[in-house]
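Batch job 17 of 40 flagged for manual review because the log was empty.
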Amino acid sequence: MDRNLKRFWLCASFRTCFGRLTWITTTEEIDFIIELVPGTKSISIPPYRMAPRELEELRKRLQELSEKGFITPSISPWGALRSVCEEEGRYFETCIDYRQLNKVTVKNKYPLPRIDDLFDQLRGAQFFSKIDLRSGYHQLRIREDDRYITAFSTRYGHYQFTVMPFGLTNAPAMFMDLMHRVMRPYLDRFVIVFIDDILVYSKTREDHEQHLRETLQTLREHRLYAKFSKCEFWLSEVKFLGHVVGAAGIAVDPAKIQAILDWPAPTSVTEIRSFLGLAGYYRRFVKDFSKIASPMTKLTQKDVKFHWSDECEEAFAQLKKLLTTAPVLILSEAGKGFMVYTDASRMGLGCVLMQEKWYKVAYASRHQDT
């Protein structure tokens, strides 16, 4: 059978994995639980005025969620604010503002995996498939006794969720818990998962076909659904979690770096922290990241007056330049020796981890207070 046709039939044989998501079809693996801080009283915020086009978009979205069974009418004393915002000239629904609820919610400490730990599992892989779960959070039901807490107010009525909405503080941790339970037999063997993103990886075509079958079969058994249009299969190189991963190693995703290149010079401490948070996601690709960023980092310290100096501007521009020319880092192999090259100065500490013929695995650095 032609290889491309064989791949098509593989997906077609699991077409129910790509079906329409409704409350009836959601997984019953675990329920989402909301635990409030003892003594908490209900919080309700009235809806604000909206423009006609915003109201029309809101009405459509409420109807869609109601038809799927994701929301029901509510008489709850709780009431969060639902908003609609504009992007590129068109209106679209964003999310409910659950910040007040999040402040009084007991935090779920289930850990999210480290990105570098996930990528370490990909060494030697030649074939990749990426599976994007459909409306991921909506696939997890809320415990019936907790649904009233998710209530929100709109011009068209008071509603509450039956499935986990976006914006709740414990949503990422709870969904990560779900996916680990479901995929545990395959984790670190041929599947890595980060919340609702699934990556299947294999060393051979034959292995990859079998790994895909097992992964899709598991999703079907646990009633988890993927969005076919956002899935990618049988790739030799894949974009995943802001990186480009292939047999040669791991690189930064140019599309993600563009946001850093377009970032204007910070005008406040908050903007500096936001920029360094985004750029710092790729610090393993940049030699002496902390040293270079130190003029900006100093401005975030307590009792330091904000002044965007020429030194800050130079560091800002240098980080942008280095990220656009960042090297491809190899995925280290167990059982082979490592080499660490270190460097120290009054400004900071730096090192690079290498393996086999001086191939770079990662950079690391730390700023020194002077």
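Reviewer: the log was empty due to a logging misconfiguration, but the result itself is present. Residues 205-221 form the longest helix (17 residues). Unflagging and moving on to job 18.
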